[in-house]
User: Fold this.
Amino acid sequence: MTRALIVVDVQRDFCEGGTLAASDTLSLLNPLREFIATSRQDSIKIVFTQDWHPQNHNSFATEGGPWPVHCVAGSPEAELMPPLAAEAGDVIIHKGQTREGAGYSGFESTPLAEQLRALAVHEVAVCGVATEYCVRATALDAAKAGFRVAVLTDLIRPVQLSAVAPTLQELTAQGIAITDSRSWQKTDQQDLRHRQSSVR
Assistant:
């Protein structure tokens, strides 16, 4: 296993009807579910990150932060948004568990990098919500941790549509590939065929 798909924060509070919903999340859910399913079939490791905040997290407006209360640990609002669901063997990363710190990145104060290395993962694709916050931070930290990184443009959703272009430009400048899910998956299948040919 050399690849992982990191699904960032597709939780009830960040989707349609939630307290901090990203844009147009309903159009994301079924395509993302289908891509996760085909990725599992291709032996790509699936990682779900979830905001998992204490009730007094410093990002909450009630504590002087910029955001409404969201994704409190153990609450229904912090659960993955249906129809997404983790399966046995998937990696679940809870982030933002202490009062302090933004908790945007799936790598911030979590064991994600170590877990991926233990699985011999060298390349990750990042998708989910929100483009300019947690997707951005997770992709940047994945690159800093030494992974080859792609962001899948058809499977991300921003809070503000105007933030997408500058965010993707920033990621490109940091050496992160900007592609779509079909192209990323196709590259994996081509690499697999090449490795199989080499073995023969």
